[in-house]
């Protein structure tokens, strides 16, 4: 899939609508996005939170009876209730509403009521860029601050499985650094070379990995050729594995605010995808994130059967 429109089309062909469990759903921008997702045929939802506030917001949005509501006024407890709905297969995807991310993650990782899988939790963002012939995935711009080699392997694994669920069977992964050569004064370049070698030896499967690669070499065939880099990944990357949260977050915001891009993001590594959007995210990005999560959940559930 090369665009969000293709993702939307694929979701509408699923036949069975997936269900969002929205934690602390008394959040107008989130409700607006969830209503739009329903209108587009992407999903249904169960809203967990303060029923009076939720009903008032739905009334303002002209959809007073759009979704069932589970009453829980405490946001942290609402996150646990929503996670439990997904755990018990009454919903398929968890979505953040008016609850802080820390409380949501605590609910996700709760061993009794949550969605722990034993895997690393990481974030992947997808960007549809003008004049770019494919979706570009950036990871991790939101969760893991300064991942070591083991954590980078987990982030990579999550992103590859996610991208494969979007019908990209062998994604190309560029491990991004400031330079394209190994330099012992720059630990990220050593990690990149090790990940590439692990992929060569079959320790990392289902993708092609190369690194270290500077951003220009990952995205531009001409830049890679100019520097004499011969690689099936250089210039053709699907996934950009960033060295740390600072680099990832800067790239994420640069693409968001300086390009006419479309974007969406999902938390991975739990037993079900988690949609965590910022209040600063564009409305369209929230809907895109829901669509991505729905398709990923559907593919995972199909494989599990």
UniProtKB/TrEMBL annotation:
Keywords: Acyltransferase, Transferase. One of its GO terms (molecular function) is phosphate butyryltransferase activity. Pfam families: PTA_PTB (PF01515). One of its GO terms (biological process) is butyrate metabolic process. Residues 76-294 form the Phosphate acetyl/butaryl transferase domain. It is an enzyme of class 2 (transferase). InterPro entries: P_Ac_Bu_trans, Phos_Acetyltrans/Butyryltrans, Phosphate_butyryltransferase, PTA_PTB. Belongs to the phosphate acetyltransferase and butyryltransferase family. This is Phosphate butyryltransferase.
């Amino acid at each position: 899939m090369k665009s969000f429109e293709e993702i939307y089309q694929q979701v509408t062909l699923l036949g069975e609508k997936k269900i969002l469990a929205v934690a602390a759903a008394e959040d107008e921008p989130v409700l607006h996005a969830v209503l739009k997702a329903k209108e587009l045929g992407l999903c249904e939802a169960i809203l967990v939170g303060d029923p009076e506030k939720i009903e008032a917001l739905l009334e303002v949005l002209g959809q007073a009876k759009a979704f069932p509501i589970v009453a829980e006024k405490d946001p942290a407890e609402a996150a646990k209730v929503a996670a439990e709905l997904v755990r018990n297969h009454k919903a398929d995807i968890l979505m953040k509403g008016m609850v802080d991310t820390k409380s949501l993650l605590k609910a996700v990782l709760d061993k009794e009521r949550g969605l722990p899988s034993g895997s690393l939790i990481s974030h992947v963002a997808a960007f549809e860029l003008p004049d770019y012939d494919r979706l570009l995935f950036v990871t991790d711009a939101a969760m893991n601050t300064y991942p070591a080699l083991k954590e980078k392997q987990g982030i990579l694994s999550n992103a590859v499985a996610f991208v494969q669920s979007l019908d990209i069977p062998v994604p190309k992964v560029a491990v991004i650094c400031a330079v394209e050569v190994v330099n012992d004064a720059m630990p990220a370049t050593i990690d990149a070379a090790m990940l590439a070698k692990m992929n060569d030896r079959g320790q990392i499967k289902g993708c092609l990995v190369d690194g270290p690669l500077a951003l220009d070499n990952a995205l531009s065939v001409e830049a890679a050729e100019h520097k004499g880099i011969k690689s099936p990944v250089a210039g053709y990357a699907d996934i950009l594995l960033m060295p740390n949260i600072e680099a990832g977050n800067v790239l994420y915001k640069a693409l968001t605010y300086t390009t006419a891009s479309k974007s969406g993001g999902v938390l991975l590594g739990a037993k079900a995808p988690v949609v965590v959007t910022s209040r600063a995210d564009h409305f369209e990005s929230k809907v895109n994130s829901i669509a991505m999560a729905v398709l990923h959940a559907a593919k995972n559930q199909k494989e599990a059967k």
